[in-house]
Amino acid sequence: MKKTLVAIAALAAVSAFAQSSVTIGGAFGAGYQSAPNKTKGFAFTDADLNIGVVEDLGGGLTARLATTLQTTGDNFRSGVLRGNTSLGLASASMGTFGFSHTRSSDLMTQALVAPASLPDGIYDSTGILARGAIDGVGYTSPNFSGFTFNASYIESGANPFSATTEGIACAPATNASACAGVPAGTFLGGFSTDGSGTVNSARKTWVLGAAYANGPLMAAVSFKSGKNDDTLYPALKYGATDKKTNFELVTTYDLGVAKLGFGIDSATKSKPAAAVAPAASAAYRTYRADLAASKMAFGLGVSAPFGPVTVGANYAKRGENKMYELVAKYDFSKRTNLNVSAGKQSGIGAVSGGQNSGYVTATALPTDAFGAAKEASQFRIRLMHTF
Question: What DSSP string runs through 119-142?
Answer without folding.
Answer: SS-TTTSSSS----EEEEEEEEPP
